[in-house]
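Chain A, query sequence.
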Amino acid sequence: MEKQNLTIKISVNTYHQLRSDIGRGNISQFIENLVNRELGGTEKRIEQEYREFYANPQNLKEAKQ
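Chain A, predicted structure.
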């Protein structure tokens, strides 16, 4: 997979904690995993809201009015 560079600014303390807990060569992958999980989570929440909306016949009636 092709990669794109992204520059972000974080506090020195956060960076040191990332290096300590995640490891110097693993920070990019760690952040990418977090972002992908969050973006995927948004999609799943929207899908769930649609399912809940359409499961209620009253919502459909009101939407047609």
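The CA atoms of residues 34 and 40 lie 10 Å apart. The mean pLDDT is 88.
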